[in-house]
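User: Study the chain.
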Amino acid sequence: MTRMPASQDALDCEAAIIALKTRSIPVEEAVAQSLVALDWLRSQGATQFLFKYCSTFDSTAEGNIGPVAEALMQALGTDRTVFVPTFPGTGRRCSWGIFSSVTCC
């Protein structure tokens, strides 16, 4: 289980990152760890949240991206989100629903 620092003292920073390895573990654990991280960030006063996921694949047959995103959305009280699976600067593009990774222009 993910453990955040025990101190509830606010961090002195403008942005915080919690690196989890949730893409290769069972979905229940991925959801639980992500919610612990969200709760900790909220306790630090965070008001904006980004869920970074692997843009090329899920590492489990069931897939963790959807369940984790849905759990985070429910915890945040929202019914909408935006998924951005591409980043042209790294050669990843999506056209007509087809994802591609290219190395040239």
